[in-house]
Design a protein that fits this description.
The complex is a heterotrimer of chains A (323), B (431) and C (181).
Chain A (H helix, E strand, L loop, with lengths): L3 E6 L7 H17 L4 E5 L10 H6 L5 E5 L22 H16 L9 E7 L3 E5 L7 H4 L3 E3 L3 H9 L3 E3 L3 H10 L4 E5 H6 L8 E4 L8 E6 L1 H6 L2 H9 L2 H25 L4 E4 L2 H24 L5 H19 L1
Parallel strand pairs in A: 1-2, 1-3, 6-7, 6-8, 9-11
Antiparallel strand pairs in A: 3-10, 4-10, 5-8, 5-9
Chain B lengths: L1 H15 L4 H16 L2 H16 L6 H13 L3 H13 L5 H14 L5 H18 L4 H12 L9 H10 L3 H29 L12 H9 L2 H16 L4 H18 L5 H35 L1 H11 L4 H18 L2 H18 L4 H17 L5 H9 L5 H24 L1 H12 L1
Chain C lengths: L1 H32 L7 H22 L15 H36 L11 H21 L10 H9 L10 H6 L1
Helix pairs in contact in C: 1-2, 2-4, 3-4
The chains are: A alpha/beta (323), B mainly alpha (431), C mainly alpha (181).
The complex binds sodium ion (2 copies).
Family (chain C): Belongs to the TRAP transporter small permease family.
Protein name (chain C): TRAP transporter small permease protein
InterPro entries (chain C): DctQ, TRAP_DctQ
Chain lengths: 323, 431, 181
């Protein structure tokens, strides 16, 4: 049969763990399970910009890419569930479960029309890092200038009385170095990637995560159609939940590695949010979740909050069982 | 790889037929991409690139630094810088030419473009040197060469563009340009001394300014100094980011112009329109170059070039030497921004792949571009001097600029051989 | 007619550039002194920037202001000039027509996806449609070059700058007038 060579456009550096531990091994696996009939080639640089990767794959400028749903606000309201608070602690567990929930409840509503969805997941629990003042309660948030990562965290910061700063990671680093902002919302992995650990004085780790990101891997549909039905099935078997697990594991490792560095850094005090603080936060996010549910309903999901609750329950149970 | 070669050839043919560079690169990029990928993908790419090259936050530095430069040029700051330099240096041998270089360096520290620097300084320095009987060759050459510092001493529009297309930290690039800029000033002074030593008639002595005049003249440079301190100090204190510095600097220049009552509504409109027009020209170029880059990405040129370089047994040093020579030749023929946009997407990955520092390479490129501004036959600064002083034969200008070209080659060698010259400051400031 | 459009787009672009400067200033001052950065400053900047550029593209095309390499003055012949004029009109017109067409499609998609800016929720579709229309006008301006006799060749950018500085054909040295005396 005809060999199909897919071109991969990556906006992450070649050495990034998502490429090294997830995407490249996945490409090798695709080649293996299709006995070489499908290959993926990495382009020297990304096609287009990080923000336009969905358009790039949809119209065939590249065949495979890795996208962050939050980069195109409002386009994927259902996938936004993966950005909410208190989704889970262990990405190895909640990432594949998210893929399953999405496929079951949301995929039929065709949010990703125009591309083939290889996997979708929530990636890592988010926390609060500050330069000087530790954040131990909602009260502590008041007046702090904190970097926000997207519309959900912006709303969250506004809700707790903090001042959201929306700047690129490079600019955030500059402002943190100079101390002109007070801190940043960040996943553990991002804290290390952005070299924030040496700058920061306090980290409040939030059990279950204060926020997360929705990541997806997509393939161009006409290229996908060129692949034989058996090979597509073989590829799907190593994608979907398997790819979400691989991605979740990679983020889990990166998070754990970063947390180790954080705890080993004497200038950074790492603490875990108290039960009282978490309870406070859970109240704060309720209206934000209701907002999300409105948007998800408009997209056709019958009972978004029920899906969210079921998802959280399953993740909690699975994390308990794993202990 | 063959496709890439055909693409480069086609662009060069179109460019040398005087098709606008933006159109030439855009059209070749579209056809190349369409041929290699698909026509549908190529047509979507054209729209995505035009949208994403303009609707991107980081790009805002370009029009704002251009605006800042044009506002500053309209405030008479250049005259004061020159008067101060003249008061201290004018009486020495070749002192007015040295003063021109110093004042150009000062002006460069608040203006991001070399063309704006040469136009502004030319208007101020040329009549003065004429008055004291300086040879036209020395006068025009010192202005043309001194003004090249505009793109090396921060702020610099060219560095911003390099930073954006290669994702290199702009604050680090700025810091890295500072010491090479100072070396540039020193070497240009050497070039002036050399010219005067060869031909003492080229620079008759001028009057010595009394200390009272010197102090007074020094008081005139406050505006330039203030703006420089605000922009650079603002970046390194974190008051604003390197991106925001452009807007803040433009606002500062606007306030200075207002305070000095140099700004009528009509003049402000002219400056705004002119800056917006220059930016539109530049963005068209950036869009064209981005289309060409997307085509190169699929052409296999990067890997082929890297394989060739690693397979040829060239040492990394030899590769840098070859790249420098290519840029010196291109610099004779092309405008600097177009040169950067056309070639960096091809060379950058190779140079970085060989383990070189992106900040250092950026500074090296900017210095090579400076050289290109004063090398004939296509040297924008020489053209400007020709317009500023049309009665000076172009041959005199070229003869006059040869010592400056020579010291520029030495500077390229210094910067290439000793990365620390560029990297010391950024490492100090950004760790 | 064209003159009027050009004046209007020029005013629009100048205003937007001024706005760009003011937005950055307010954002920085707000963040540092008032503990209140301009909400949605970055996204406003992006839209205003695109507007400021696209409003001027037609005029830049029509005036032949795009950067060209002025190398071969020696081999300038009427034939080469004619070929150049043809190439610029056709290639420039075609490229911008393509940009206009595909931006229109992109705008339609943004409408379908209900794409909005993250903080202020400004819909993106109208912005992209406007860019498409301006790119279309730019394409027409390139085509119009084919029918112009007085097509400009040279470094227009530089000439404007010199003019703005009051440096005329006789430079700052008054070369011409000296000869006349
Ligand atoms: Na400068
Ligand atoms: Na040159």
């Amino acid at each position: 049969a005809e060999t199909v060579t897919m071109k991969y456009s990556s906006w992450l550096p070649d050495q990034h763990h998502v490429n090294q531990r997830v995407m490249y091994p996945w490409f090798a696996e695709i080649e293996k399970v299709t006995e070489g009939r499908v290959k993926v080639e990495v382009l020297p640089k990304m096609v287009g910009t990080a923000l336009s990767q969905f358009d790039v794959v949809r119209d065939g400028l590249a065949d495979v890419s890795f996208i962050v749903a939050g980069y195109t606000p409002g386009r994927f309201p259902l996938a936004e569930m993966a950005e909410l608070s208190f989704l889970g602690n262990d990405a190895r567990i909640f990432a594949p479960i998210f893929n399953r929930y999405y496929r079951e409840h949301m995929e039929p509503l065709n949010e990703f029309e125009g591309v083939e969805l290889m996997t979708i997941m929530s990636n890592a629990p988010g926390n609060v890092l500050t330069l000087k003042k530790p954040v131990r309660s909602i009260e502590d948030f008041k007046g702090l200038k904190l970097r926000s990562t997207g519309p959900y965290t912006t709303a969250l910061l506004n809700a707790v009385g903090a001042i959201p700063i929306l700047k690129s990671s490079a600019e955030t680093f500059e402002m943190l170095t100079a101390g002109t902002i007070d801190g940043s919302l960040a996943q553990r992995e991002t804290a290390k990637n952005m070299n924030m650990i040496d700058l920061m004085g306090h980290a409040t780790l939030v059990p279950g995560g204060l926020f997360s990101s929705a990541l997806a891997v997509i393939v161009n549909p006409s290229t996908w159609a060129k692949i034989s039905a058996e090979d597509r099935e073989a590829i799907n078997a190593v994608s979907h939940e398997a790819l979400a697990l691989s991605m979740g594991t990679s983020f889990y490792i990166a998070d754990a590695d970063s947390e180790e560095t954080m705890r080993a850094t004497p200038t950074l005090k790492v603490e875990t949010a108290s039960d009282a603080f978490v309870a406070e936060l859970k109240e704060v996010v309720k209206p934000l979740e209701a907002d999300w549910a409105e948007r998800a309903k408009a997209k056709g999901l019958a009972d978004p909050l029920a899906v969210l609750a079921a998802f959280r329950a399953e993740v909690t149970a699975a994390e308990q069982a794993a202990k | 790889m063959t496709v890439a070669i055909v693409g480069f050839l086609a662009s060069f043919v179109l460019i040398f037929l005087r098709v606008p560079i933006a159109i030439a690169m855009g059209v070749v990029g579209f056809f190349g991409f369409g041929y290699l990928v698909s026509w549908k993908a190529a047509s979507t790419m054209v729209a995505l690139v035009s949208r994403d090259s303009t609707m991107t936050y980081g790009m805002v530095v370009i029009p704002l630094f251009i605006l800042m430069g044009n506002l500053v040029a309209g405030t008479g700051v250049s005259k004061e810088l020159y008067r101060a330099a003249q008061a201290f240096l004018g009486h020495r041998r070749g002192g007015l030419a040295t003063a021109t270089v110093m004042a150009s360096g000062g002006f460069a520290s608040i203006c991001g473009s070399s063309v704006a620097t040469v136009v502004t300084m030319g208007k101020v320095a040329m009549p003065s040197m004429r008055q004291y009987g300086y040879h036209d060759g020395l006068s025009t050459a010192s202005i043309a060469a001194g003004a090249t510092l505009g793109i090396l001493i921060p702020p610099s529009v060219l560095m911003v563009v390099y930073g954006i297309i290669t994702e290199t930290h702009i604050g680090k690039l700025y810091a890295a340009g500072f010491i090479p800029g100072m070396i540039g000033i020193l070497l240009y002074m050497v070039a002036v001394r050399w010219t005067v030593w060869r031909n003492p008639d080229a620079a008759p002595p001028a009057a010595r300014a009394p200390w009272r005049d010197r102090i007074q003249a020094l008081g005139g440079v406050w505006a330039a100094l203030l703006l420089f301190v605000v922009v650079i100090g603002g970046i390194y204190s974190g008051f604003f980011t390197a991106t925001e510095a452009a807007g803040f600097g433009a606002f500062g220049a606007f306030v200075i112009a207002l305070v000095r009552r140099q700004l009528t509504l009509h003049k402000l409109y002219d400056i705004l329109l002119d800056s917006a027009r220059t930016s539109a020209v530049l963005f068209a170029l950036i869009i064209g170059a981005a289309l060409f880059t997307e085509f190169l990405n699929y052409s296999g040129a990067h890997n082929a070039l890297l394989d060739f370089v690693t397979g040829s047994g060239f040492s990394p040093t030899a590769v840098i030497v070859v790249i420098c020579i290519i840029y010196i030749i291109l610099g004779m023929l092309m405008e600097s921004m177009s040169m950067i946009l056309l070639t960096v997407p091809l060379f950058f990955p190779v140079v970085i792949g060989l383990g070189f520092d992106p900040v250092w390479f950026g500074v090296l490129l900017v210095v090579l571009c400076e050289l290109g501004l004063i090398t004939p036959p296509v040297g924008i600064n020489l053209f400007v001097m020709r317009s500023v002083a049309p009665d000076v034969p172009i041959l005199s200008i070229i003869k006059g600029v040869i010592p400056f070209i020579s010291v520029d080659v030495i500077r390229v060698a210094i910067i290439a051989a000793f990365p620390a010259v560029s990297l010391y400051l950024p490492n100090l400031l950004f760790g | 007619m064209f003159k009027k459009i050009e004046t209007l787009t020029g005013i629009a672009a100048s205003f937007l550039l001024f706005l760009l400067m003011v937005i950055t200033f307010i954002d920085v001052i707000g963040r540092n002194f008032l503990n209140r950065p301009l909400p949605g400053g970055s996204e406003l900047t992006e839209i205003v920037l695109a507007g400021s550029i696209f409003f001027l593209l037609p005029s830049v095309a029509f005036r032949g202001d795009h950067i060209v390499v002025d190398l071969i003055d020696v081999i300038r012949t009427p034939l080469l000039d004619f070929i150049r004029k043809l190439l610029v009109g056709i290639l420039g017109g075609a490229l911008f027509a393509l940009i206009a067409w595909r931006l229109w499609i992109l705008g339609g998609m943004a409408l379908g996806y209900a794409d909005r800016t993250p903080t202020l929720g400004i819909p993106l579709a109208p912005v992209i449609f406007a860019m498409s229309i301006l790119a279309g006008i730019t394409a027409l301006c390139f085509v119009a070059l084919l029918f112009r006799r007085d097509i400009h060749i040279g470094n227009a950018e530089l000439e404007r700058m010199l003019e703005a500085e009051g440096i005329g054909a006789d430079g700052v040295t008054g070369a011409k007038s000296e000869k006349e005396h």
